[in-house]
């Protein structure tokens, strides 16, 4: 932890204590108590439930008159989280987002097609802010109405698509189906942070005919735009002048060794409205140590491996969703889409994997199912039930896809 970051952290701690949340959370702790990482790691984590418990404005560290906007993250468990932004927070977010576009080689001559949702969700408006600061033309469509999306994409000659991976895939499949690829002018796609496998990536790149960039962020910490992959596709550069991150073992809460997989924990360094200290993202990733060939000095984290709460413990083994992506990417005939259902029957855990296939011959399908079972058994250590469904039978979502349904609890 260098001196510059240390100073910013001390300042953030002092400022955060203006909020109800951190007044309690950091009771008795002063900024100057933190003189090293060793001191810092003694600070308590902030969990999403702390933010939920602070509903509506307990996170705010400024006067209401200084807040210019709120966003809200969708809590899966009822109470939403409200994140207030000051004018400076929005400016900082736009600067970070502009930097993302620049790393992806997007310029003010591009036409940016924005499909993530607008409103309380941070995604659409974040892509918008950054693009406007860059000076590019934007088409703020938001999600849905695919035929209109395609019409505008053709008529206005969109060159950059911004989307979730599921929606990019849906658009790609639709372009293929309507045979309009030659009317589409897309060159790049910036895909919102969602864990997505190699196979899905390849399909989106091929069907849309684009270079892909992974953009990272979450509503609690500005929104998307706090980091992005560069053209070398070697993890995502993180804007460490705004964000201090740690990667910890989600079980022991200790920092993992460099390069090991763990949970990303974020502390904001500049945020006024809703500063966060040691916020647990539950996103699993690892730090990439070597220098990036692109020459950017911003540190990198790997493409997301999954969520620490998606790590499934079954039959004494830990299953990461990324392992399933990997298996499906290695077999011919399976699409990238799948669903997993886990049940507890007669005292045993049973995992059922549904995957899509375009194969029609029953013998071929049986063979493919057996191959997936074998690879699963070799790689993960137990035998799943594997069931094929038709191509496109599994849902494609405009937001993030839910792929794992654990019915055991
Ligand atoms: Zn790079």
Name a few traits of the molecule.
about 400 residues; alpha/beta; Rossmann fold; GMP Synthetase, Chain A, domain 3; 2 domains; 9-stranded mixed sheet; 4-stranded antiparallel sheet; 11 helices; 21 strands; about 25% strand; globular; binds zinc ion
Structure description:
The protein contains eleven helices and 21 strands. It has a nine-stranded mixed beta sheet. Strand 8 (223-229) and strand 9 (236-238) form a beta hairpin. Helix 5 (87-103) packs across helix 6 (123-134), helix 8 (165-177) crosses helix 9 and helix 10 crosses helix 11 (362-380). By secondary structure, the protein is α/β, with parallel strands linked by helices. It has two domains: 86-307, 3-Layer(aba) Sandwich (Rossmann fold), CATH 3.40.50.12780; 312-406, 2-Layer Sandwich (GMP Synthetase, Chain A, domain 3). It binds zinc ion.
């Amino acid at each position: 932890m260098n001196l510059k970051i240390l100073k910013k952290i001390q300042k953030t701690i002092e400022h955060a204590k203006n909020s109800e949340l951190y007044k309690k959370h950091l009771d008795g702790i002063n900024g100057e108590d933190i003189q090293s990482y060793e001191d810092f790691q003694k600070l308590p984590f902030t969990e999403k439930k702390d933010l939920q418990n602070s509903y509506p404005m307990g996170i705010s560290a400024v006067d209401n008159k200084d807040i210019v906007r709120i966003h809200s993250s969708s809590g899966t468990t009822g109470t939403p989280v409200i994140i207030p932004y000051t004018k400076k927070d929005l400016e900082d977010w736009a600067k970070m987002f502009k930097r993302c576009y620049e790393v992806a080689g997007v310029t003010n001559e591009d036409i940016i097609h924005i499909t993530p949702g607008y409103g309380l969700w941070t995604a659409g408006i974040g892509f918008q802010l950054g693009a406007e600061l860059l000076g590019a033309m934007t088409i703020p469509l938001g999600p849905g109405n695919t035929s209109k999306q395609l019409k505008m994409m053709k008529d206005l000659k969109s060159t950059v698509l911004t989307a979730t991976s599921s929606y990019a895939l849906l658009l790609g499949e639709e372009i293929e189906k309507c045979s309009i690829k030659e009317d589409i002018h897309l060159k790049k796609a910036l895909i919102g942070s969602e864990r997505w496998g190699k196979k899905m990536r390849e399909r989106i790149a091929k069907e849309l005919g684009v270079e892909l960039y992974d953009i990272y962020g979450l509503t609690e910490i500005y929104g998307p735009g706090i980091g992005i992959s560069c053209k070398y596709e070697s993890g995502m550069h993180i804007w460490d002048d705004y964000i201090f991150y740690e990667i910890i073992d989600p079980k022991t809460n200790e920092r993992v060794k460099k390069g090991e997989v763990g949970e990303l924990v974020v502390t904001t360094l500049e945020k006024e409205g809703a500063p966060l200290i040691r916020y647990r993202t539950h996103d699993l990733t690892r730090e990439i140590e070597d220098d990036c060939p692109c020459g950017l000095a911003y540190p990198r984290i790997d493409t997301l491996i999954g969520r620490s709460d998606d790590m499934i413990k079954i039959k004494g083994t830990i299953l990461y969703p990324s392992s399933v992506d990997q298996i499906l990417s290695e077999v011919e005939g399976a699409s990238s889409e799948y669903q997993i259902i886990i049940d507890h029957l007669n005292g045993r855990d049973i995992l059922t994997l549904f995957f899509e296939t375009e194969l029609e011959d029953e013998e071929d399908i049986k063979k493919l199912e057996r191959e997936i079972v074998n690879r699963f058994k070799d790689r993960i250590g137990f035998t799943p039930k594997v069931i094929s469904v038709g191509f496109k039978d599994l849902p494609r979502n405009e937001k993030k896809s839910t792929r794992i349904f654990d019915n055991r609890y």
